[in-house]
Amino acid sequence: MNIETEILVKALNGFFYIYLPKQKCFSKNTVDSYKAAFKLFLDYMLEQNNSSLSQMSLDDFNKDNLAGFMDWLMTVRQNSPVTCNQRLMAFRSFAKYLGIRDFALTSVYADICKTPTKKTAAKVVDFLSEEALKTLLMQPDTSNRTGIRNQCFMCLMYDTAARCQELLDIRLKDLFLNGNAPFVYLTGKGNKTRAVPLMKVTVNHLQRYLKLFHPDYGSRMDDYLFYTTSHGERHPMSRDTVQVFMKNYGRAAREICPDIPERVHPHQLRHTRAMHLYRGGMPLSILSEFLGHASEETTRVYAYADTEMKRKAIEKAIPKAVAFDENPIWDTSDDEILRKLAGL
To answer: How do residues 91-139 score in pLDDT, each as one tens digit?
Structure first.
């Protein structure tokens, strides 16, 4: 292995095992995603340029190779523009890391940043109307244990606007239901923990659920809040389980309420809560913290998507006195005037 390749390998090792997990506190899933991007790049370099890792150096991470890699992802692997852009972010992060390690390598960062992202369609926020949400939450059969569990899960997911995995990771010790301000601790991306307040109605659902599923609540605080039982043993409830029962409830709710979309999925409740809070007047900065977003820019998607608030704002901006008059102020039969008005 030549010296240039050795430098590259050491840089990659430090990036994946020190910088991302320990300095940036990225989650294992994010680190694995970044690793996947680099593995694909190595496959591309071998396939298109006949260059293996043993022949590569930091100089191979340039805008021309990355632009070709982005095109290869779309044409050969048929990745979406969103996926391609996510891959590119991994290389920009690596280039930034190189600049931190050695100021002389900041030119690498500048070069990689010249690689254009792929154009993507405007993101559509899929959320439920208040009537649709109410109908969906009424679908579980609360005369049995499973129905009580599923209804509690959906109510808690809506109230906290949690990601599905954040809810599945809740342990009993994360709940604080006593006192005037009940809340729950959620652990989000990058293992960042945030405290989320709970509404009284949600606390009632939780207390009913705890009596049935955790009668020993208080003595086994490390147990997962939501679980399934197999062969007499408890296991954390899976995302597949959540997706299945929400899909079924969505299908049943659609027969009652036409506002229910054809596809109902767990993340919809997070979007729904965020949109309802934004429409209720919650500032984007607070909403961003509530949702556990790393950047407020991520939260702006709800402002962009809320066409109803835009319509109302436009209506307020147009004074009633300036309403369009059906009777024109000029003589529409005068051809000369009409030509002047048309700019002819």
So the answer is: 989 988 888 887 666 665 566 766 777 776 556 678 899 999 999 999 9
CATH code (residue 13): 1.10.150
Please report how many Cα atoms fall inside a 13 Å half-sphere around the Cα of residue 301, on the Cβ side.
16
Sign of CA dihedral 284, 290, 291, 295: positive
Beta strands in 210-344 (DSSP E): 227-230, 233-236
Residue at 135 is within a domain: yes
Same domain, 158 and 215: yes
Render pLDDT for 217-237 as a digit per residue (tens, 0 to 9).
Answer: 888 899 999 999 888 889 999
Pair 167, 229 in one domain: yes
Name the residue among 218, 219, 180 with its Cα closest to residue 198.
180
Could you tell me if residue 284 is inside a domain? yes
CA 112 to chain centre: 25
C-alpha 82/C-alpha 117 separation (Å) is 9
